[in-house]
Amino acid sequence: MLLLFVGGTWGITFSLAKLVTEAGAHPLGVSWWQAVIGGGLVWAYSAWRKALLPFTKAHAVFYVVCGALGTAVPSTMFFYAAPHIPAGVISITIAIVPMLTLGLAVSLGLERIEVIRLLGIVLGIIAVLMIVGPETSLPDRSMTTWVLVCVAGSACYAIENLWISLRRPQGSDAFGILTGMLVMAALLLTPVVLATDSFVSLAKPWGMTEFNIAAMAVVNAASYGLFIHMVTTAGPVFASQTAYLVTLSGVFWGMVIFDEQHSLWIWGALMVMMAGLTLVKPKD
Questions:
Q1: Which residues touch 92 (CB under 8 Å, ≥6 apart)?
Q2: 15, 103, 158, 278: which one has the fewest Cβ atoms less than 10 Å from its Cβ?
Q3: Average pLDDT of 131-148?
């Protein structure tokens, strides 16, 4: 039930991102609120657990990199892309994260080469090509650039995964990493938001845009926290199944909220991506 809840709710954030950016909210301002609200919620949870946030020089550098690669840069990319492409397509590009992570790990010698898992990477590449290649895959060919922006955002998540694996300081638990990541992301984005005058006000009275921004931040923080809980209680292999559900629910919510109609190429890319996820998934 927890897996279904996390997968189903996390997938709606792509549609929420499209709603708020299409309503005129600046992507940088939305990214800032995601970091501020999410960081505040996770910090409050850590305080309730009486878990102190480790903060040495090594931790600070670690949090800065995680904040940039895990929130500030990719979130901004996705929010910029959201008004220009279907929410379902964004969710499909997110599914490539495990494949990119494995590909980078193999190239760095961190993972041994396995034919089956490498085939999964190839299927992920094929799925992206099925989206950006054919003339009839997307409603408008100008969307191709924005799909590639989302793929670049997914690459940031993949690099962050390797950074956590290689540089995680001793004494850092998963919730500490999440707290430090979101707080640092907010600090990194603050001068950029001020310099570009892209602040999004959440002052009352609230409309649907403000509610959607807050809802997206809460869902992101809660889903990430519950995902960490599943990793620590049920194991990483079980928790990794959220990738399937997030992608599928992202497509589902896009159809429900925006009445998105996808081409056969997009449906084919979704099925190929699901097959690729199955092949790259680590074994018990």
A1: 127, 131, 247, 250, 251, 266, 269, 270, 273
A2: 278
A3: 89
